[in-house]
Amino acid sequence: MKAETENNMNVFGEYMKEMLIKRSISLRELARRTEMDASNLSKIERGKVYPPQKEQTLQKLAEALKLSSEEKQRFFELAALANGMIPEELEHVRKNKAIPLLLRVINNKQLQEQHIKKLAEMVEKENRWQGRVID
Question: In angstroms, rounded to a whole number, what is the distance separating the alpha carbons of residues 58 and 10?
Answer without folding.
Answer: 16
